[in-house]
């Protein structure tokens, strides 16, 4: 009798190869005609980066988990695989994507986020404070360059020749280097216990307290301060979480409420982000965690032990504001003064540059990388920086 499982796998491989061939044809045609391509999965991160341009190349047809070995803590999946599908497969084995990539699903709508899109955006959630960023978990990647050639990175010879860990360079590249086809990432076991504590304190006190705790052996997985309240998430072995709760004090938050709170930060459904979802500019500042509270007019939310500061400016108010209240000069000057940088995360006037302009040496490196993988400049042109 025929093995229906083998038949299905053969048909799936055939379908994936046909999809890959269609990508190759589209890329080669775009290179020959110098036609920009807009690489896109579910579109959940369309708002992020400079304005998108070019002919749409939808990656969602190239999907599926290629390999998952729970014992080795590694999963490999194609770019169009729904992020929710990957997280569900991991949850069955009590494992997780520790960097918590956001889905940014519309209220009441299922997630459209794809695995490739998550890697290309390079965004991480609240656990980034303790677990690390998305790029830290990337082990290898397969990419299609501007000539339609498929290249593998991560422990491959080409990595050594190029001199760069290309698989990690793809994380956060917003599809400007090439079409991400497959990615292998490290996963982690789901913590045995989880608890959320609440403290009432000023932003200055919260930053000081978080930095004190950060130097101690405490299972702090995430933190967030907003409007006089600091939330701290503890994750790990039950005994460690129990001991930390007794040591830190504070008010215990119910398990369901705690999970909902951290989810609201990850997906930006927390009330703080509501104005940005309605069109207000939202800035993200990356600064040294020890930085004192920043003198910025408007609302702030502090994450990652003080290392990430979200800022909603008061539209049109304060020095350095553009005609729409963008405040680019003000916020970037303040961030630079403490050794950080600022990103226009949502909305606003993108002509100021979504990302902080690169210094000449770094800009030259970006230009050389782009020219190496995409000499015709077809992949998501200018999505990260004007002129690149």
Walk me through this protein's architecture.
It holds the Pfam family FAD_binding_4. Residues 7-190 form the FAD-binding PCMH-type domain. InterPro entries: FAD-bd_PCMH, FAD-bd_PCMH-like_sf, FAD-bd_PCMH_sub2, FAD-linked_Oxase-like_C, Oxid_FAD_bind_N. One of its GO terms (molecular function) is FAD binding. Keywords: FAD, Flavoprotein. The chain has 388 residues and is α+β, with helices and mostly antiparallel strands. It has three domains: 4-189, Uridine Diphospho-n-acetylenolpyruvylglucosamine Reductase, domain 3 (2-Layer Sandwich), CATH 3.30.465.10; 193-266, 2-Layer Sandwich (Alpha-Beta Plaits); 271-352, no CATH class. Helix content is 33%, strand content 23%. The strands form four sheets. An eight-stranded antiparallel sheet has the order 13-10-12-11-15-16-14-17. A five-stranded antiparallel sheet has the order 3-4-8-6-7. The longest helix has 30 residues, at 4-33. The radius of gyration is 22 Å and the shape is globular. The relative contact order is 0.12. Mean pLDDT is 92; it is low at 155-162 and 317-324.
Radius of gyration, taken over Cα atoms and rounded to an integer in Å: 22 Å
Spatial sequence of strands, sheet with the most strands: 13-10-12-11-15-16-14-17
Average of per-residue pLDDT values: 92
CATH architecture of the largest domain: 2-Layer Sandwich
Instruction: Report the uncertain regions.
Output: 155-162, 317-324
* Cα end-to-end separation: 57 Å
Strand content range: 15-25%
CATH topology of the largest domain: Uridine Diphospho-n-acetylenolpyruvylglucosamine Reductase, domain 3
What is the count of helical runs?
13
Category from helices, strands and their pairing: alpha+beta
Q: What is the level 1 CATH name of the largest domain?
A: Alpha Beta
- What best-fitting shape do the alpha-carbon axes yield? globular
The share of residues in helices is 25-40%
Largest β-sheet summary: 8 strands, antiparallel
Overall number of domains:
3
How many E strands? Answer: 17
Order of helices and strands: HEEEEHEHHHEEHHEEEHEEHEHHEEEHEH
Pfam families: FAD_binding_4
Domain FAD-binding PCMH-type: 7-190
GO molecular function: catalytic activity; FAD binding
Organism: Cupriavidus yeoncheonensis
């Amino acid at each position: 009798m025929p093995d229906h499982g083998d038949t299905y796998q053969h048909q799936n491989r055939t379908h994936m190869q046909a999809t890959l061939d269609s990508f190759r044809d589209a890329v080669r045609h775009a290179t020959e005609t110098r036609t920009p391509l807009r690489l896109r999965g579910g579109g959940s991160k369309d708002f992020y980066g400079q304005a998108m341009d070019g002919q749409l190349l939808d990656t969602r047809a190239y999907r599926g988990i290629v390999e998952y070995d729970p014992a080795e803590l590694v999963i490999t999946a194609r770019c169009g695989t729904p992020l929710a599908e990957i997280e569900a497969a991991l949850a069955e084995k009590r494992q997780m994507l520790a960097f918590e990539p956001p889905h940014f699903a519309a209220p009441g709508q299922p997630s459209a986020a794809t695995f490739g899109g998550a890697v290309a955006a390079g965004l991480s959630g609240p656990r980034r404070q303790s677990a690390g960023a998305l790029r830290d978990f990337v082990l290898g990647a397969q990419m299609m360059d501007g000539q339609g050639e498929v290249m593998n990175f991560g422990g491959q010879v080409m990595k050594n020749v190029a001199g760069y860990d290309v698989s990690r360079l793809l994380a956060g590249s917003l599809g400007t280097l090439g079409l991400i086809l497959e990615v292998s990432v490290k996963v982690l076991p789901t913590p045995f216990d989880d608890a959320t504590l609440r403290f009432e304190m000023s932003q200055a006190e919260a930053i000081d307290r978080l930095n004190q705790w950060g130097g101690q052996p405490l299972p702090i997985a995430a933190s967030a301060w907003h409007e006089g309240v600091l939330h701290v998430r503890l994750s790990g072995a039950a005994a460690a979480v129990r001991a930390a709760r007794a040591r830190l004090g504070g008010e215990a938050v119910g398990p369901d409420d705690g999970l909902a709170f951290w989810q609201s930060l990850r997906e930006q459904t927390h009330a703080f982000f509501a104005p940005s979802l309605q069109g207000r500019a939202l800035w993200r500042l990356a600064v040294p965690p020890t930085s004192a509270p920043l003198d910025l007019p408007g609302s702030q939310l502090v994450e990652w032990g003080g290392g990430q500061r979200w800022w909603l400016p008061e539209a049109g108010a304060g020095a350095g504001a553009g005609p729409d209240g963008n405040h680019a000069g003000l916020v970037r000057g303040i961030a630079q003064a403490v050794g950080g940088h600022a990103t226009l995360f949502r909305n606003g006037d993108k002509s100021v540059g979504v990302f902080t302009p690169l210094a000449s040496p770094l800009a030259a490196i970006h230009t050389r990388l782009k020219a190496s993988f995409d000499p015709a400049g077809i992949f998501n042109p200018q999505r990260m920086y004007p002129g690149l």
